[in-house]
């Protein structure tokens, strides 16, 4: 299943080395389009659902950084059996890893704006997209001042 995870400090070494896989610990929260989310929105296109899931992850990531910092969300694939719903903390798309899992990184998404500016804006944060092989570039963009 494709999951979306806000960057954690322990993720940085994998991004810096441009690894295509990352080990995730049990209990790590993420966002995903689960069967339940699809069932709740039967008329919605999968791309619209994925957009909502990644935006949920982005909003959480922005809350976790300093006001003048950007946020990064990873898109990665893990086995469905490694996940359980976590809607009590993650909304309609919230999931949690029930066991440690190796995830295959699909892409990185960095906010164009810093957290302060994004909070003042009434639209979803615009994201810069990076391929799975571009972890170092995504981190470099993350560390640049936001708009």
Description:
By secondary structure, this protein is an alpha+beta fold. It has one domain (2-142). Helices cover 32% and strands 29% of the residues. It has 6 helices and 8 strands. The protein has helices spanning 12-16, 35-40, 46-63, 87-90, 115-120, 135-142; strands at residues 2-6, 21-24, 29-32, 72-77, 83-85, 94-97, 101-111, 127-131. Strands 1, 2, 3, 4, 5, 6, 7 and 8 form an 8-stranded antiparallel beta sheet that branches. The relative contact order is 0.24.
Give the end-to-end Cα distance, rounded to a whole number of Å.
33 Å
What string gives the helices and strands in order?
EHEEHHEEHEEHEH
| Rg | 15 Å
Which percent range describes the beta-strand content? 25-35%
Number of domains: 1
Pfam families: DUF6912
InterPro entries: DUF6912 (IPR054206)
Describe the protein's topology.
Layout: E1 2-6, H1 12-16, E2 21-24, E3 29-32, H2 35-40, H3 46-63, E4 72-77, E5 83-85, H4 87-90, E6 94-97, E7 101-111, H5 115-120, E8 127-131, H6 135-142
Antiparallel strand pairs: 1-3, 1-4, 2-7, 3-6, 4-7, 5-6, 7-8
Keywords, separated by commas or semicolons:
147 residues; alpha+beta; 8-stranded antiparallel beta sheet
Outline of this structure?
By secondary structure, the chain is an alpha+beta fold. It has helices spanning about 10-15, 35-40, 45-65, 85-90, 115-120, 135-140; strands at about 1-5, 20-25, 30, 70-75, 85, 95, 100-110, 125-130. It has one domain (about 1-140).
């Amino acid at each position: 299943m494709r999951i979306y995870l806000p960057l954690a400090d322990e993720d940085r070494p994998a991004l810096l080395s441009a690894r295509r896989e990352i080990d995730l610990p049990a209990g790590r929260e993420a966002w995903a389009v689960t069967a339940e989310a699809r069932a709740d929105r039967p008329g919605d296109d999968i791309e619209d659902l994925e957009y909502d899931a990644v935006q949920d992850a982005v909003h959480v990531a922005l809350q976790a950084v300093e006001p003048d910092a950007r946020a990064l969300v990873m898109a990665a694939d893990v086995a469905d059996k490694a996940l359980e719903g976590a809607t009590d903390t993650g909304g309609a798309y919230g999931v949690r890893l029930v066991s440690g899992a190796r995830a295959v990184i699909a892409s990185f998404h960095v906010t164009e704006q810093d957290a302060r500016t994004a909070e003042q804006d009434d639209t979803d944060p615009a994201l810069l997209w990076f391929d799975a092989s571009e972890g170092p570039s995504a981190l470099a963009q993350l560390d640049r001042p936001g708009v």
